[in-house]
Design goal:
The protein is mostly beta strands and 328 residues long. It is 4% helix and 39% strand. The chain contains 2 helices and 26 strands. The protein has a 5-stranded antiparallel beta sheet with strand order 23-1-26-25-24, with no helix packed on it. Strands 10-14-13-12-11 form a 5-stranded antiparallel beta sheet, with no helix packed on it. Strands 2-3-4-5 form a 4-stranded antiparallel beta sheet, with helices on one face. The longest helix is centred in the first third of the chain and has 7 residues. The radius of gyration is 19 Å and the shape is globular. The N terminus is likely disordered.
Length: 328
């Protein structure tokens, strides 16, 4: 049992917009194994269960009770909640479906065998279960309202709907040869656009139109509460907002931030206290305590996931706790 995390205390209150709630302390082995360092998967199902995958696949149930669903998930990469509360993940060179209890049920896409060589042109569309992904393995990163699952395949972004894979984008050959890649947490989906952070700063984020045309995401020069030029801030992790914007984890020399970006606009959602004053031992960093999300006294976790059904962000990784923040 996780001390201080498995049962709600008498002072437990649900957060409101602008407040941050610590869902779980990750100092115990079971919690760390699900949310430690940089998770390879973080998602929120429609029933509001939070799933994390690092060494193990785990879920946070009601009352902040942690349950381990799979141990030692070697070879799994990416984690996306589907409309029926099941999960999609990459397993080797395939996309597979997991039940809400973590058991593999069916293969959704990908055939065994020697895969496509990364950098070679990918077909515009192909039958999903017959296609051989690139050798590094496909990774799901979003599920859209129409049921499509979005997947990175080394240098390609696919949309999987039904039994068809449709290519949305492929990194140009010269950029791929120069080292451009889709890194974990650097690709996110809107309802129509896909957002790509193939460059290290917010000014390098591109919005991908449905026809495959990429253009720079328009940003304001400055954001209230944030120091410096918005475009020069680094991209740590980003996730879609359920509409046509993204949440981005970023930082400067003294603070960490989460910004909500839409075309031409930016809003501060989370701001840490100056790094030299952050503490994880402070009582406000314990599960169940509410704090102002723009004055967070503990380090900001690394990875982000958003649920349009609860209107909340969840943050985990490289921190000693899992955080939930309502944004609407």
């Amino acid at each position: 049992m996780l001390a201080g995390c498995s049962e709600r205390g008498d002072d437990w209150k649900e957060p409101k917009q602008g407040q941050a709630l610590v869902l779980l302390n990750t100092d115990a082995d079971a919690a760390y194994n699900g949310f430690g360092d940089i998770p390879v998967g973080l998602t929120i199902a429609r029933d509001n269960q939070v799933y994390g995958m690092f060494v193990d696949l785990v879920t946070i149930r009601k009352g902040s009770k942690l349950k381990t669903l799979q141990r030692h998930t070697n070879g799994l990469h990416g984690l996306v909640a589907l409309p029926d509360n099941s999960l999609a993940t990459g397993s080797g060179r395939q996309i597979v479906k997991l039940s809400s209890s973590g058991q593999q049920t069916v293969v959704l896409a990908g055939a065994e065998g020697v895969g496509r060589k990364a950098g070679q042109p990918a077909p515009r569309s192909v039958q999903a279960k017959r296609y051989r992904f690139a050798d590094k393995g496909p990774t799901p990163f979003a599920a859209r309202a129409d049921g499509a699952i979005l997947i990175t395949d080394d240098d390609v972004i696919w949309s999987l709907k039904g039994d068809t894979l449709t290519r949305l984008y492929q990194i140009p050959a010269d950029a791929y040869q120069s080292g451009t890649r889709f890194l974990p947490g650097r690709v996110a989906s809107g309802t129509k656009h896909v957002y790509l952070a193939t460059q290290p700063t917010l000014g390098g984020i591109q919005a991908l139109d449905p026809d495959g045309t990429a253009h720079s995401l328009s940003l304001p020069r400055s954001v209230a509460g944030v120091t410096g030029d918005t475009a020069g801030l680094p991209v740590a992790w980003m996730t879609g907002d359920g509409a046509e914007g993204i949440y981005v984890n970023t930082h400067d020399k003294t603070h960490s931030y989460v910004l909500h970006l839409t075309h031409g606009e930016a809003e501060l959602i989370v701001k840490s206290a100056p790094r030299d004053t952050n503490t994880t031992s402070n009582s406000v960093c314990k599960p169940g305590h509410l704090v102002d999300a723009t004055k967070l006294p503990c380090p900001v976790p690394f990875a982000l996931a958003y649920s349009a059904f609860s209107g909340s962000l969840v943050m985990a990784g490289s921190s000693s706790y899992v955080l939930r923040i309502p944004t609407e």
